[in-house]
Amino acid sequence: MNLSIDSGGTFTDIVIEQDGLFRTHKVPSDNLKPYLPVVTFLEKSKKRYQYFINGTTVATNSILQHRGAKTLLITTYGFKDVIKIKRQSRKDLYSLFPKQPTSFLAKIKVETIKERTEFDGTISLEPSKKDIDIIKKKIIRNKIEVVAICLLNSFVNQKNEKNLKTSLTKLGIPIYISSELNQQIKEYERSVTISANAFVSKKLNEYINEVESTKYFDKFLIQQSNGGLAFTDLAMRNPVNLLQSGPAGGVIGAYKLSKVLKDNKVITYDMGGTSTDVSLIDFDILERDSLEIDNEFLNLNCMDISSIGSGGGSIAYIDKGNSLNVGPKSAGSNPGPSAYGKSNFPTVFDANIVLERIPKMILQDNMIKLYPERSYRSIERISKKLKISTLRCAESIIEQTNHKMSNAIESLCAKYGFDHREFVLYAYGGSSGLHACDISEILNIKKIVFPNHMAVFSAKGMLTADSFYDLHVTFKKNYNNLSYTDIEKEFESNIAKFNKINSKKVVRIDRFINLKYLGQGDYIQIKNSKNNLRNFTLEHYKRFGFRLARDVEVSSLKIRFHFQDNPSLDFVYRSKNKDALFRGEFSSGIVTKENMKNRKKYKSPLTIMDDKIPIIVNRGHNASLDAYGNIIIEKK
């Protein structure tokens, strides 16, 4: 028996797998004590699980809420302001008095130390004992809880960072060094990444320790941003790798399902209570090496997931220009939308109730008691200020939310030069059924797939994930002066170094190389082969529409180590639909998924109930149920 839990911003999704069958639960999240719903469920169930997979927003919330450990960043003398200068870019390009947006870095204290590692790795100056002692006194005096170290050019030679870490170890507080986390060039990104790693470590360690104390599982793994699973020891060493922990599970699940359904081009659309996450699958999951969060850029290998503040709990309001706006602030699960009876926030969920897009049976039989009249009053208050009807106001909230989500999909596709009309939309999450058909019409997407267990699909997807670790190594060379053997030797050298410190069984190793034209700033990652130049040129032309007649440069290498220990239940997407779903009698125009017949075409307009989750099928579409329990919506 295996367990997967996705701790989201509004709800915590729970999936139990036993002998190929699934039971699902959905409970409100606790933003003050995020571990509480998980611990409560484990203690109430009192069952033993072989694998427990967890996706969590603890690291993300720590960054966004600026609530983390009291952190000190130590960097090379003369480079104290690197994290303030950033990329020298500004969002308000034409402002005469631009304001630097705040971030979690405002909470981090910075100290410098005299040392120098040259660009080629030569140590020209080691930190002196006197300077180290001064740093120690400042750490004690300022009651620092965790230290981050990022010294100049340490990605080439780790010696000064490691020696400094050793010297500070006796202080008895956690110390993180950049060369152990990410050996890639770019000082600002390296500094921010190791700072974030240290900043979120306290909150994440508390979360893991609380969950581990229940001891109701044999193996506990955490979902990482890159799609791999990590054992808790690795997760606690590199907590920054969990910044997209939750959404990653859904993308993994969509990728595995797309192989079964033979959909090569997929847009994943995960709409929950707080936010919407979208990503792309073009035969494979698209990844990136940089993550923007809280107005900062981190060197972080992760799936290319675009997140926007549009969810079922997104709050509608009137802005300074007396116009209607929706999000990114969310009512969450507590106090929640007006319909929950604890607030007067007019949310997207309330707008759907006012427009009667949510069937009455949900309003009457829900895990949270709902008050439709409060939804109407909350929307009515805004409509009066805008001097429009309540129904028109609710429609405007839905329309604006739909267009924001559509724009996020369009932007992500444009980034890679894709035509979104060629893709299939995989919609999941508790709120996606109410909006997916509208979005498909806006984007002219002809097919939508609602996966089996769509409301908890991210949690289910984690059960199919592999356990792996990504190692990044700077290898700045002119590719035209290298042979394939030279590149393979560099890979083998770094694999050998990793194997000396790794205790887990490696079952597969994937090798990637990052290439760019000489003089370019950003690179393109491709799988290493003897056709690297050809593949790079094709990919560059595909993304940007041109080729350059100049040398190609290697920026860095990525090595992905796959471990044996993970559930990886790929069979779940080939299983027939046997799970018990919600039963009930409904009025005309509403059908339960349970009563749908395989491959029968159901005409629209129609509302399909998938375990208390409504799926709206707009006019001009057909709905059907496939053999695996997935609901398919197609344009006529």
Q: Could you characterize the architecture of this molecule?
A:
Among the domains are: 2-63 and 205-245, ATPase, nucleotide binding domain (Nucleotidyltransferase, domain 5); 68-200, Dna Topoisomerase Vi A Subunit, Chain: A, domain 2, CATH 3.40.1360; 467-565, 2-Layer Sandwich (Dna Ligase, domain 1), CATH 3.30.1490. It is globular. The model is unreliable at 575-588 (pLDDT under 50). The chain is α/β, with parallel strands linked by helices and 636 residues long. It starts with a strand and ends with a strand. The chain has 17 helices and 32 strands. Strands 13, 14, 15, 18, 21, 22, 28, 31 and 32 form a nine-stranded mixed sheet that branches.
Offer a concise description of the structure.
By secondary structure, the protein is α/β, with parallel strands linked by helices.
What share of residues are in beta strands? 25-35%
CATH topology of the domain at 68-200: Dna Topoisomerase Vi A Subunit, Chain: A, domain 2
Biggest sheet record: 9 strands, mixed
* Helix proportion: 25-40%
How many H/I helical runs?
Answer: 17
Q: So what's the overall shape?
A: globular
Structural class: alpha/beta
DSSP E strands, number = 32
Mean pLDDT over all positions: 90
N- to C-terminal distance = 42 Å
